Structure formats: C-alpha cells, structure tokens
Amino acid sequence: MTTHHYPTFALDDIANLRESAQVEFKLASGRDGNGKIPEDMWETYSAFANTLGGEIILGVKEHQGEFTIEGIVNPIPMLSDIWKILHDPQKVSHNILSPTDVQIIEILNKKLIRIHVPEVDVKLRPIFIGPDPYTGTYFRVGDADMRASKEQVDNMNKRAGLLLKPKNKS
Question: Does the keyword Plastid apply (predicted)?
Fold first, then answer.
C-alpha cells in the first residue's frame, strides 16, 4: 500500500485556513456557547478513517467560505464526551484514536480541539457510525463527507474478509 504524504497546515495562518480532503473545521460551540460535539463530526471521523485520514479542528467558524478561530470556552467536558462515544459500539464501530490523537491546542489565546484521524487498514474497514455499516459508512470526497453506497460497503467488507448482511426491517 502506498503511503500518501500531504503537507501539514498551519492553524495560525488565519488568512489561508481552508477545508480540504484532509482538513475539516467545526464550530462546536453548542447551544450555551460553552462547547458541544457537533453530531456531523462523526461522519467526518468515518470519512477520514475510510479514506486518507485527516484532521478535525473544533472551535473554528465558517461563514461564506471564510474561517475564523472562535475557540471553545470549556473543552474538557467535550474531551470526555469524545472518548465516551468512541468507546460505545452503538455509536462508533471502532475507536481508532490513541490518546495523542486528541488534543487541546491554543491559538490566538483561544482553545481548540484537534483530532487526528488516521487512515485505517483495509482489514478494519468500514469504520461507521451507528449500529449499521450500510447507513453509517462515509468517504471523504474533496472537502465533503459522502455516505457510502451499499456496493462500496460490500467491497470494503470483502477486502476486510467479512460478509455482512443488511439488518432485516421486520
């Protein structure tokens, strides 16, 4: 398998912040403004794991294609929630992160959460959210998370040596 090496990005270069195939920004402010994990972050986790890997940065706002560092007022409870979800097989099929992959970083005196999601080996794919790989598997296409088709999930399962059957809706 060919290893892809992509240039790293500098978060403190605000004028040049952009999402890409391997970088995703989420505001993560929550209703009260103190911080909450965005639900769609898990789609990005699945997409990065099933594609080339990437970085999810929580605490960055997008408005009309421009990004600003907003920060997270209280990131500690969010870290706890991230690890709780990662260890819940009803929410995420596999935790592929190590403790060093999830960090609180500080830029411009604002706290952000940086999550490094590695590309997983084909034997672990698909990484999916929720209980069903056919509805919870994603890929990264450009700067978007795309739901995998049944055929794509079946192909990943074949490569991994698994044969999954869709759940009966009875």
Answer: no
CB 29 within 8 A of CB 60: no
Among 3.40.50.2000, 3.30.950.30, 3.40.50.970, 3.40.50.1970, name the CATH number for the domain at 14-157: 3.30.950.30
For the chain, the straight-line distance linking the first and the last C-alpha, in angstroms and rounded, comes to 41
The span from the CA of 144 to the CA of 58, in Å, is: 16
pLDDT tens digits for 113-161?
Answer: 999 999 999 989 999 999 999 999 999 999 899 999 999 999 998 888 7
- Alpha-carbon 65 to chain mean position: 20
Give Cα separations from 29 to 71, 74, 90, 154 (angstroms): 8, 9, 25, 37
| Phi, psi of 112, deg, nearest 5 | -125, 160
Q: What is the C-alpha R_g of the chain?
A: 16
Q: Are 141 and 148 in contact (CB under 8 A)?
A: no
